[in-house]
Amino acid sequence: MQSFFDWFSANSVANGRPWLILGKGPSFSKLADFDVSEYATLSLNHAVRERMVDVAHIIDFDVIEHCGEALLRNAGVLVMPWHPHVRNKASSKNLEEMARGYPILECLSNEGRFLWYNLSTSKDHRDGQPVVRVRYFSAEAALNLLATAGVRRVRSLGVDGGASYSTAFSDLKDKTLLANSRTSFDDQFREIARTILTTGIDYAPLDIDSPIRVFVAAAEAQMLAVKVLEYSIKKHTSMSVTVVPMHQSGIQIPVPRDPGNQPRTPFSFQRFLIPQLMNWRGRAIYLDSDMQVFKDMRELWTLSFNGAQILAAREPSETDRRPQFSVMLLDCLTLDWRIEDIVSRLDDGSLSYEDLMYHMKVANGIQADIDPAWNSLERYEPGSTALVHYTDMNTQPWVSCRNKLGYLWVRDLFEAVDGGFISKSLIEDHVRCGWLRPSLLWQLKHRVEDTTTLPRKARLLDRDFVAPYQSLPKQAGTPWINRKRQVPSVASHNDAEGWGKRLVRSIRSRFS
């Protein structure tokens, strides 16, 4: 019996091609809508009975009895763990022992069509071969199997969330559906996201536009924040994502003649470049750089426009704030934005800064259909918050130790550095440039997540630090400085004595 990896390396049909994984989820019914001739195919469990595939992947030995002759008829090869599962647990017997007495398996073995691999659910592994990780469902194992073999591009149909099968497998609903006691197939997405992040494999469902394209407004001084944001997106997203810092686009943004119409930040107008960067095709997500993601971006990416050009995040019902455009899903096909035209309108008076930035009057059809959880302003509720927006610039975690949610941002920074996603040298360089608080390096060295508990010696490292936004020209109405918070940022060093807190409350009440 040959290992999967030995077979793969010797097989010209399998090696070098993109792969399509076929599962039993509802999207399996869309298979006839696509030309899949370019793909090598791998079926999960019972999916092999519906069509011919290059590889039939089966973890549970029970499936062999259900599929019967379909394996001989439809499978180029059958691959199973060296210790297959029986009733959702790895058997103590190995594959050779369990295959004896099964004519179909013996036939496949005699024809060189029966392969094995080491799966992480068993501690008994054959030497000299990789161990493939799985936690919840077989789609995870299949994707990891292909990634370990060196496959770089994978698509899928029937690898869905929820708790249902395609109608083609309705006869299995009461036999195998969520037989491992999970309440939903959604659990597999966390592991799929992990595989994409750690291996770099290009994975997406075949029926979803991919990759997810995220454009981030930024300047070079915000690049560490951008990288942590990118890490947080990819950490949670179960399909491939491209993150584009827009200050690197190479497109020059004209400056309006009227100072009142000029951008309040170096990146205020960058969002209007997105349709051009997309060549006026497809969809795109816009984010500010001062954000951190905690849920699968696929949820946002697949929202329906329902005739709108822009989907924006609606505000929580308890607030009276105007709609925000710091999180948007854009239909670039219908947005004819050209930054030169927009600035010309600002110059000729047909458009004001408020019309542009606060009301987005360069778009027809804006719907606030994005859940508020995707733009949570300085608030975090575990399990509910999808995106934290660090809107208070003088307490953003990379420039201040005083953000009560700073531990969340620092935690992802640590993970990104440990995983090689962000280099320590990048942080050191940006500290030298004056873009990051120096105490961040102390935290990295001493592995202290919570910024609010840093010792005095660490805080003293920041005594001469001036955050980048503080050195920019101040305009009337600029969001760079929140005057209600600026005095507390100075007074906070005296909070331990008590009077500082009282002074802060007094000043805040005067400005409220």
General description of the model:
The protein is of the alpha/beta class and 512 residues long. The protein has three domains: 204 residues, Alpha-Beta Complex (sialyltransferase cstii, chain A); 177 residues, Spore Coat Polysaccharide Biosynthesis Protein SpsA, Chain A (Alpha-Beta Complex), CATH 3.90.550.10; 89 residues, no CATH class. The protein has 18 helices and 20 strands. The strands form four sheets. Strands 1, 2, 3, 4, 5, 8, 9, 10 and 11 form a nine-stranded parallel beta sheet that branches. A six-stranded mixed beta sheet has the order 13-12-14-17-16-18. Strand 10, helix 7 and strand 11 form a beta-alpha-beta unit. It is globular. The relative contact order is 0.08. The C terminus is likely disordered.
Strand content: 15-25%
Averaged pLDDT: 89
Give a short account of the largest sheet.
Answer: 9 strands, parallel
Count of separate DSSP helical elements: 18
| Helix-strand category | alpha/beta
Can you tell me the overall shape?
globular
Can you tell me the CATH architecture of the largest domain?
Alpha-Beta Complex
CATH topology of the largest domain: sialyltransferase cstii, chain A
Cα-to-Cα separation, first versus last residue: 75 Å
List the main descriptive attributes of the protein structure presented here.
512 residues, alpha/beta, sialyltransferase cstii, chain A, nine-stranded parallel beta sheet, six-stranded mixed beta sheet, 17% strand
Fold blueprint:
Elements: E1 2-3, H1 4-10, E2 19-22, E3 40-44, E4 53-57, H2 62-67, H3 69-74, E5 75-81, E6 85-86, E7 89-90, H4 95-99, H5 103-110, E8 114-119, E9 131-132, H6 138-149, E10 153-157, H7 187-199, E11 202-205, E12 212-217, H8 223-236, E13 241-245, H9 274-277, E14 283-288, E15 291-293, H10 298-301, E16 310-313, E17 324-331, H11 339-348, H12 353-357, E18 366-370, E19 376-377, E20 387-389, H13 406-418, H14 424-432, H15 439-446, H16 456-459, H17 483-491, H18 499-511
Parallel strand pairs: 1-8, 2-3, 2-10, 3-4, 4-5, 5-8, 8-9, 10-11, 12-13, 12-14, 16-18, 19-20
Antiparallel strand pairs: 6-7, 14-17, 15-20, 16-17
